[in-house]
Design brief:
Layout lengths: L5 E6 L20 H8 L2 E4 L1 H4 L4 H9 L6 E4 L3 H6 L6 H10 L1 H5 L6 E4 L8 H8 L8 E4 L8 H10 L2 E2 L1 E3 L14 E5 L6 H16 L4 E5 L6 H15 L5
Parallel strand pairs: 1-2, 1-9, 2-3, 4-5, 5-6, 7-8, 8-9
Helix pairs in contact: 7-8, 9-10
């Protein structure tokens, strides 16, 4: 069985504080994305959390990156935080339509729906919402309230081929449960030891060896540690003989 693809990056790329450890000292900010994409092959897009991006923004990003580079948008906060998935059909359509430049270019990765910590489990609302989503997209849900970590929730996600985001945070860690035909990891701890990175790499290798395309996103922080860890993970998988 051929190994599945690994996409690895961080939550955003526009951080001058990453100089000079990641970005060269003299690199202008207008060239950050192009340089980032020369070392990593995916980025999670926080920009879409607070605004509907105009087509020209995505078109510029597409032109600045290789054909193999993917963008993983975070769903708009109106869907996840204001409406809390209820009566959200119209705005969700507007949001998904705004991603068309990425989709038509083959550059759209999974879409992250991150729910607020105060949003407790509501399986009926979740089920109604995910039935609205087109089958053509990859959707991921990050639950930040432990009440969601329940087999009934996992079953609802599996039925729709929606991924449970396996997030590692300081205060809450998501169970390692597969609910879709791909895997999405959000690696949010401020620091990772070499041993911890090795454990993550082993898990990623297992997912990929079992034909699960894997998306691994590190926290951006003010330091470039996340970007450097993402690069280490990509390089380690290459050393193991797994194409990325």
């Amino acid at each position: 069985m051929p190994e599945a693809k690994l996409y690895c990056g961080t939550s955003g790329f526009a951080y001058p504080s990453w100089k000079p450890e990641f970005y060269p000292r003299e690199l202008p900010s207008s060239e950050f994305l192009t340089y980032y994409a020369s070392r990593l092959n995916a980025v999670e897009v926080n920009y879409t959390y607070r605004r509907i991006a105009p087509p020209k923004t995505f078109e510029k990003w597409i032109a600045s990156t290789p054909d193999s580079f993917l963008f993983m948008p975070k769903a708009h906060m109106k869907i996840t935080h204001s409406l809390r998935l209820k009566d959200a059909e119209e705005f969700t359509r507007v949001f998904l339509d705004s991603l068309e430049p990425l989709r038509s270019a083959g550059r759209l990765g999974p879409i992250l729906f991150q729910l607020p910590p105060s949003f407790k489990a509501d399986i009926e609302t979740l089920g109604n919402f995910i039935r609205l989503l087109p089958k053509s997209i990859q959707a991921v849900f990050e639950f930040r309230n432990a009440s969601w970590f329940d087999e009934a929730v996992y079953s609802a996600l599996r039925e729709a081929n929606v991924a449970l985001c396996m997030a590692e945070n300081e205060n809450l860690e998501t169970p390692h449960v597969l609910t879709a035909d791909f895997v999405y990891l959000r690696l949010r701890k401020p620091e990772y030891t070499e041993s911890e990175l090795g454990s993550i790499g082993y898990r990623v290798q297992q997912y990929r060896s079992n034909a699960y395309p894997t998306y691994a996103i590190f926290k951006h922080e003010e330091t470039p540690a996340g970007a450097l860890n993402a690069e280490k993970l990509l390089n380690a998988q290459t050393v193991k003989g797994l194409a990325v």
